[in-house]
Design goal:
about 170 residues; alpha+beta; four-stranded antiparallel sheet; two-stranded antiparallel ribbon; 6 strands; about 10% strand; elongated
């Protein structure tokens, strides 16, 4: 006669505990909400890089840099367009370099950025005719450090040529 042996309570508890840990780690690794935030942030960074390259190319061709008098031009706050003909949110003719100006993936919508602040989805261009800054907000936790890498204002993600970036303009 064969004696059947089952699992002990301890073995079952240990197995369920290990499975629970694997499930939590697996969900954290593929957190779909954070992945969407990272995707939008990647788009924001790429958009600003493309527009920066267009501005740099136009300025290097002896075209003067637009002057916003240190006041941000924005994709949403002033109802600016995506036109690259000088009437869009970057007040320079960039149509030879890009077809249209990009807009934030969350344009005109409020979201929580990496610092926990409620912010408006927008891109901003600030210039004094000599230096310029593009800035936006990021929302993925992995990008928290990018706020401190780029300039003195750690409440924006910024790229540009102004020393200290947006703090150069007193913003």
């Amino acid at each position: 006669m064969v004696k059947l042996k089952g699992f002990s309570i301890l073995e079952l508890v240990v197995t369920l505990g290990l499975l629970s840990i694997l499930f939590v780690v697996g969900f954290w690794a593929v957190n779909p909400i954070e992945r969407l935030k990272q995707s939008r942030d990647s788009q924001r960074q790429e958009d600003l890089r493309i527009v920066r390259e267009a501005v740099d190319a136009v300025v290097s061709g002896s075209v003067p840099l637009a002057n916003t008098f240190g006041v941000p031009s924005s994709t949403s706050a002033i109802g600016a367009t995506q036109k690259a003909d000088g009437s869009g949110w970057v007040p320079m003719t960039l149509s030879a370099k890009i077809g249209v100006l990009p807009i934030d993936p969350s344009n005109e919508k409020t979201f929580t950025d990496v610092l926990g602040s409620k912010v408006l989805g927008e891109y901003q261009f600030i210039s004094d005719g000599i230096y310029y800054v593009f800035r936006t907000h990021l929302e993925a936790e992995i990008n928290r450090g990018k706020y401190a890498e780029d300039g003195n204002d750690n409440s924006w993600y910024e790229i540009g040529t102004a020393p200290g970036l947006s703090t150069y303009f007193g913003l």
